[in-house]
Amino acid sequence: MRCSVYIAMSLDGFIARRDGSIDWLSIVERAGEDYGYRRFHDSIDTVIVGRNTYSQVLGFGVWPFARKRCVVMTHSPPVSRHGEEFFDGPPIELVTSLAADGARHAYVDGGAVIQQFLRAGLVSDLTVSVIPTLLGQGIRLFGSTGRDVPLRFAASKAFESGLVQLEYSVAAH
Description:
Layout: E1 2-10, E2 14-16, H1 37-43, E3 46-50, H2 51-58, E4 69-73, E5 85-87, H3 91-100, E6 105-109, H4 111-119, E7 125-131, E8 139-140, E9 151-158, E10 164-170
Parallel strand pairs: 1-6, 1-7, 3-4, 3-6, 4-5
Antiparallel strand pairs: 2-8, 7-10, 9-10
């Protein structure tokens, strides 16, 4: 099963403010421009998110993962609102179970979850959109992996908004 990261971060490596807000992403919003997200979203069949990201997404109003299997990694599962499932365990157990159920391509989202998947060697590829701002503090995208994670460059693209999108595959070692 392929596990992909598709995320935005500030130039100094933060994916959200300390309180979890992502209001600063609006500086690159442009009518008709989704920076490839729709194409990516259409390619996945499963979404794996952390509890904090899940709470943030619930506040969007419209559930963005309709018709996708959604698994929230959490130690304290709330009541499911959109058919999402909850999982408390190691990422490898989740991926093994999802693959056995026929999942082929998962979107992995949320700082802590992405870090867990990287540590476990489960991320296949990363698309990181660098937003032209420095937050100075907040929730970091990358943390301690406990090992080197070699990446293979796939593509980059600069947009008029100042956003620079970087694509990498995780190289086997």
